[in-house]
């Protein structure tokens, strides 16, 4: 199945998912770090503020103590306060408020009385503060308030009393804005947005006057651990780009870009490569089809599984009529014998080419088919078949075979004719014997001396002789009859004996002598008896004819039989005749080669055909000192 994504797309998607996860993790980690920072920093800031305010308180308490002990003049008071205000600019004024709420001493003296009044808490708040301080005899903070200049302040009142009398309070007017700016270290103010928020949540002062940036920043509030605890320090973290995040983001983008570029590049490369290889495949295919179409041989390719015809060439279309969607089985059904080449078992592996000759039933034409397994263009297993028209050759072979069969018969008849005188002699013997036995019987019958016991043996012998004569006639008929070859296990000695017997027209006055040399325990051969007899009779006749010029005593035909190489038996017929010239030897086994005026020149050609039919070989060699040796081989019978 084809994937929906290419490898490049998959890589890209995986990469994007990975990057998003990494970014989310980084963001979380970053926020966590910032939150921790914030918690730590806000505590530090609160600590610093508290310390500063406590220092201010101690200063006021010290002054108050000195005053109540009567050791502080107004001048000293003013000097000490002025000095302190230089160090603590968040304190705008220090005012001695009498129990009547009237202003008694006030510093710095750079301010006028109305100036001091405009900075102070509302009258009622001043009264409450005075009362509270007097009643508790402890320093007290006022409620935060907005002065006429629109800024927020707070007053810190320290009781001023001797042992006997309450002298009022020493009030410090403190600018709340200092809590969010001047009293905090610069790194804190730069890092964070700091605000002072009252108990209603209203912002009284801010470190940065610019309008607030959008929400979403980390923000945290902490009560200022001053005695009244009504103010809160609200700290908001600026969004900060961590170096790590920046680097990661940058390199991620860089990597992502290069990956996309790489993907695109390889996609394009792949595309070009594919187009090129597709074009090449197309060209190859065209060339392949052109070549196949120009062949004078029918070519077709069939699918091994479905049997569908995948391809047929031009010659195929011209030679056979092809029904649409024809299956190979239907096509091959038009031939005899049915090649059944569809079955892989019949086709073999990819290396093997199977050949067979089949006849197209309707056109009566013969084809040699070759089939082998191939991989088709889509990789499936297919079979490539080629069919060459061999009708002419098959016809020629058929004619040749018919001719040869006729010649074989002719030669057999001729051999039989030669055998005739021998046979006549052979038949004469039993016939003469029969005549003798029957005459004897007749005489006894006529003389009335016949008894069953006296004539029965004679009649029996006559019958045996008649049977023998019948067998001889049967053999001649057998020899001459046209018949299919019948191979069987044959003992050569008896066959050779028969041949020598038939080869001598008049056994009573032999013209030739035979030397028979058969190896002891010679195994049987697997052959057709009549055919081998025919070969030997032919060779013996040629040998005899070659020695016709010799004196009778020199006419010797030697027959040998022995086991040779390759499990074959070698039979030879040699003579002392005129021999065969080298020129003649070259075409000796070709048909119509003869030196005889009445010869047909077919004898040796037929002999060789018969031996080759028996998977044997026939050869000739000169005999020493003269004559010829013809030799042939025959296979040993398996259970011989
Ligand atoms: P044919 O006997 O009809 O001529 P063969 O094919 O039997 O045909 O023999 C072809 C020729 O080979 C003969 O004409 C003869 O010249 C030669 N030939 C065959 N056998 C012998 C032999 N044993 N010695 C000499 N020549 C032979």
List the helices and strands and how they pair.
Layout: H1 7-68, H2 74-87, E1 91-97, E2 103-107, H3 113-119, H4 123-136, E3 140-141, E4 145-146, E5 152-161, E6 166-175, H5 177-180, H6 186-191, E7 192-197, E8 203-206, E9 219-223, E10 232-237, H7 243-294, E11 298-303, E12 309-312, H8 314-319, H9 328-332, E13 335-336, H10 344-347, E14 354-360, E15 365-375, E16 381-389, H11 391-446, H12 452-480, E17 488-490, H13 492-503, E18 513-518, E19 525-527, H14 529-546, E20 556-563, E21 568-574, H15 582-586, H16 603-613, E22 618-622, E23 628-635
Parallel strand pairs: 18-20
Antiparallel strand pairs: 1-2, 1-6, 3-5, 4-5, 5-6, 7-8, 7-10, 9-10, 11-12, 11-16, 13-14, 14-15, 15-16, 17-19, 20-21, 21-23, 22-23
Helix pairs in contact: 1-7, 11-12, 13-14, 14-16
The structure holds adenosine-5'-diphosphate (ADP).
Task: Kindly describe this structure.
This protein has 640 residues and is an alpha+beta fold. It is built from 16 helices and 23 strands. The protein has helices at residues 7-68, 74-87, 113-119, 123-136, 177-180, 186-191, 243-294, 314-319, 328-332, 344-347, 391-446, 452-480, 492-503, 529-546, 582-586, 603-613; strands at 91-97, 103-107, 140-141, 145-146, 152-161, 166-175, 192-197, 203-206, 219-223, 232-237, 298-303, 309-312, 335-336, 354-360, 365-375, 381-389, 488-490, 513-518, 525-527, 556-563, 568-574, 618-622, 628-635. The structure holds adenosine-5'-diphosphate. Adenosine-5'-diphosphate (ADP) is lined by residues 542-543, 546, 575, 577-580, 588, 593-596, 599-604, 628.
């Amino acid at each position: 199945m084809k994937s929906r994504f290419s490898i490049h797309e998959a890589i890209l998607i995986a990469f994007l998912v990975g990057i998003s996860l990494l970014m989310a993790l980084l963001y979380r980690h970053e926020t966590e770090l910032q939150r921790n920072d914030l918690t730590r920093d806000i505590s530090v800031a609160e600590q610093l503020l508290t310390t500063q305010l406590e220092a201010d308180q101690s200063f006021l308490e010290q002054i108050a103590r000195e005053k109540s002990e009567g050791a502080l003049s107004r001048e000293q008071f003013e000097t000490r306060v002025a000095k302190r205000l230089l160090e603590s600019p968040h304190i705008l004024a220090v005012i001695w408020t009498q129990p009547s709420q009237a202003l008694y001493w006030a510093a710095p003296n750079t301010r006028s009385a109305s100036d001091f009044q405009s900075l102070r808490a509302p009258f009622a708040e001043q009264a409450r503060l005075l009362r509270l301080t007097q009643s508790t005899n402890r320093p007290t903070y006022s409620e935060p308030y907005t002065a006429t200049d629109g800024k927020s302040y707070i007053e810190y009142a320290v009781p001023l009393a001797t042992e006997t009398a309450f002298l009022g309070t020493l009030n410090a007017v403190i600018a709340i804005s200092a809590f969010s700016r001047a009293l905090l270290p610069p790194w804190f103010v730069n890092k964070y947005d700091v605000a002072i928020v009252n108990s209603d949540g209203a912002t009284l002062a801010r470190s940065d006057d610019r309008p607030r940036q959008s929400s979403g920043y980390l923000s945290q509030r902490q009560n200022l651990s001053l005695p009244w605890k009504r103010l809160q320090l609200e700290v908001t973290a600026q969004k900060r780009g961590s170096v790590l995040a920046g680097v990661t983001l940058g390199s991620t983008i860089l990597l992502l870009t290069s990956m996309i570029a790489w993907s695109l590049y390889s996609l394009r490369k792949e595309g070009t490569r594919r187009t090129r290889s597709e074009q090449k495949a197309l060209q190859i295919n065209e060339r392949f089809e052109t070549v196949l179409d120009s062949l004078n041989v029918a070519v077709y390719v069939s699918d091994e599984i479905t049997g569908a015809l995948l391809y047929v060439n031009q010659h195929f279309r011209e030679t056979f009529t092809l029904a649409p969607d024809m299956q190979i089985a239907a096509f091959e059904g038009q031939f005899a014998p049915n090649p059944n080449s569809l079955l892989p078992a019949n086709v073999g592996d990819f290396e093997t080419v199977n050949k067979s000759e089949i006849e197209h039933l309707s056109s009566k034409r013969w084809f040699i088919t070759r089939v082998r397994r191939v991989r088709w263009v889509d990789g499936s297993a297919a079979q490539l078949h080629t069919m060459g028209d061999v009708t002419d050759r098959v016809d020629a072979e058929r004619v040749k075979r018919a001719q040869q069969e006729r010649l074989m018969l002719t030669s057999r008849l001729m051999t039989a004719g030669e055998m005739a005188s021998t046979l006549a002699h052979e038949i004469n013997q039993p016939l003469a014997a029969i005549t003798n036995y029957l005459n004897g019987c007749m005489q006894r019958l006529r003389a009335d001396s016949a008894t069953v016991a006296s004539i029965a043996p004679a009649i029996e012998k006559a019958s045996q002789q008649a049977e023998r004569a019948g067998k001889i006639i049967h053999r001649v008929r057998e020899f001459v009859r046209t018949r299919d070859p019948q191979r069987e296990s044959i003992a050569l000695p008896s066959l050779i004996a028969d041949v020598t017997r038939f080869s001598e027209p008049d056994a009573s006055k032999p013209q030739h002598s035979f030397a028979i040399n058969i190896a002891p325990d010679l195994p049987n051969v697997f052959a057709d008896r009549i055919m081998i007899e025919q070969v030997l009779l032919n060779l013996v006749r040629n040998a005899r004819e070659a020695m016709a010029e010799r004196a009778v005593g020199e006419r010797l035909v030697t027959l040998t039989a022995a086991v040779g190489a390759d499990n074959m038996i070698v039979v030879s017929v040699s003579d002392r005749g005129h021999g065969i010239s080298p020129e003649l030897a070259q075409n000796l086994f070709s048909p119509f080669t003869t030196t005889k005026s009445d010869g047909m020149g077919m004898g040796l050609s037929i002999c060789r055909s018969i031996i080759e039919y028996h998977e044997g070989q026939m050869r000739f060699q000169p005999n020493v000192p003269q004559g010829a040796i013809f030799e042939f081989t025959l296979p040993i019978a398996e259970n011989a």
